# Entry
Amino acid sequence: MRKKAGQPQAARPSRMKNSTMLSVSTYGASTTSRFLAFTNALEWKRGALDESSWRTFVKARSLGIPKDFAVSIVSHLIGNAGVSPRSGKLRSQLDRAYSQPASNKHIGSHVSVFPKAKSRTCDALPNCERIAEIVSLGFGCYDLWESSPIRFAGEASHSEQIVDALFPSNPLLSIGRSFRDRITKPREFWRGRLSRSQFIVPSPMSAEKGSTTDGRSSGRSLSNTGLRRFIVVEFDQGTTDDHASLINHLGSAGAALALVVFSGNKSLHGWFFCDGVKESALRSWFDYAITLGADRQMWVRSQFTRIPDGRNGRTGQRQSVLYFDPGFTKGAQ
# Structure
């Protein structure tokens, strides 16, 4: 996948200064040295701070490092990266890490990652430890909203504005008020109808009609879906805060996040710009997303996803936009 550009790179501190250290007599100089060597080997720059602070706290817990010392080290390193430490968030991460039994392993092997998913056990997910580690970083819907370059407020729908930005130049789009709809028309045909719709194929169509696998004519099929422009990652299990953590993580893993849409029910859909990305690289990235609980069906190019700022036909709720970056093409290189 393409990497985000334009993020300032902070130099990684090579060694923790003595001025940041507390007395080591309580827990030993060798333990302190191991702890500081571990923290100095992590990435302390924008985009990696949440994960590095979490790993530092987990390591501190496993070594028996006092809480105050651990949080002072993390605050120092975050400050060195040019970011103001958020004490409340750090304390939340710290408490979660220290509430687990001491272990050299990351949290997760005995955690129910998605406690609300009664029909799906943790063992059914490929990497429960990784999921638990990511969602425990504390990044949620509020953080996603705060980080959005564009924020929409009020009752008016912004579907038209967003779709214009996502799909310029009047391409063919497949849009539906129900999942069974299979209509493809130029973008201008849909103007004024988007806020009442539920679904959209996240890539332009190549023709108004195509053929299904059984030979039937259809307005939405693989044969008339064009090259990928966006790939959408959807999480059905867990809370929306869990989904926000996972989508944010995938965005920091080399993908250009353009949009996050609330389904109008219980899930978030993350739109990632992938125009021009080699299919093999995209497949590898999406396979990783699957290990985090992403819906496999979203790999299908003709698959419907929730239209931004549309209306969920079953719940009646608005499919509101939590994150929108109209400069998504600049975030990929």
Summary: DSSP finds nine helices and ten strands in the chain.
